[in-house]
Each structure stands twice: as structure tokens, then as C-alpha cells.
């Protein structure tokens, strides 16, 4: 959590306060990859929901995500990818993550999120495409749930 609230990701590039920025730990081991689609809506307080796929240990696992935060206005539909760091056991992926995120979308936009859970698993999400009209610089909580495999 400490690194989540500490120094400078893309919020700084968007001209927003570096005090709420985050940087991934450069020594953290990449242990998985994710792709995702999510929707976000906010008027001060915001809500996020979506789904994705985790690739870990040579296998793919579907997951859902939902959560909320403070500091957003508007709506966006985002698809993207990310890296997972420090995932030692698959069951450590499930749970609630704290996140710092920045997004600027008007028609098309950019954004990123850096998340960390209580198992010290980090996920760095990057929007490949974002559509809608939304501006945010927020701290949030997002819960990830692995779907049962068929």
C-alpha cells in the first residue's frame, strides 16, 4: 500500500498532483499477464466493473473485477492489458486491491492503474483503448475474483 500512494506514474504526465501517483517496484518479479475489459462511471464517487483473463504458470484463468473510489467524473469503456508481479500462488490473485489510477478520456483516452493486495501481489494495468468522457485521479478499491474453471 505504501508504494501505491508514493511517487509518480502517468498522473504526473497528465498534469495531476504527483502526491497521489504510484510507481511499480522495479525489482518485483513479473509472474503473470492480464487482459481486461472494464467500465467505469463516476460523479465524485465512482464504480468500476469488468472481466478479464490472467495468464499464470502457462495456463489461462478468467476473472471478474468490481469496486469503487473517489475522484472521478464521467463514463468510460476500457480494454487493455497488464503485468502481474509477485504472484507466488494462484489463490493470492483473488481479493481486494488498493489502486491509484489516472484517466483522461474524451472520445478516446489514456489511463493506467497500479494495484496491490494484502498478499503483496501487484497488478499494473494499462488502457489500450478507452472510450467515453471521463476524468479521474482517484484512490480506489477493486475486488478480483477468479471464475471457477470448467
TrEMBL record:
Keywords assigned by UniProt, alphabetized: Signal
N-terminal signal peptide: 1-22
Protein name as it appears in the record: DUF1134 domain-containing protein
Amino acid at each position: 500500500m505504501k508504494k501505491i500512494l508514493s511517487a509518480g506514474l502517468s498522473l504526473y504526465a497528465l498534469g495531476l498532483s504527483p502526491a497521489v501517483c504510484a510507481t511499480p517496484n522495479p525489482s518485483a518479479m513479473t509472474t503473470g499477464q492480464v487482459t481486461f475489459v472494464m467500465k467505469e462511471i463516476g460523479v465524485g464517487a465512482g464504480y468500476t466493473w469488468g472481466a478479464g483473463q490472467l495468464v499464470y504458470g502457462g495456463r489461462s484463468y478468467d476473472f471478474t473485477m468490481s469496486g469503487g473510489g473517489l475522484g472521478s467524473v464521467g463514463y468510460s469503456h476500457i480494454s487493455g492489458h497488464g503485468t502481474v508481479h509477485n504472484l507466488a500462488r494462484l489463490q493470492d490473485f483473488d481479493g481486494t486491491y488498493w489502486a491509484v489510477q489516472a484517466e483522461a478520456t474524451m472520445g478516446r483516452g489514456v489511463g493506467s492503474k497500479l494495484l496491490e493486495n494484502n498478499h503483496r501481489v501487484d497488478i499494473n494495468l494499462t488502457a489500450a483503448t478507452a472510450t467515453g468522457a471521463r476524468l479521474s485521479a482517484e484512490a480506489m478499491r477493486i475486488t478480483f475474483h477468479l471464475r471457477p474453471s470448467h
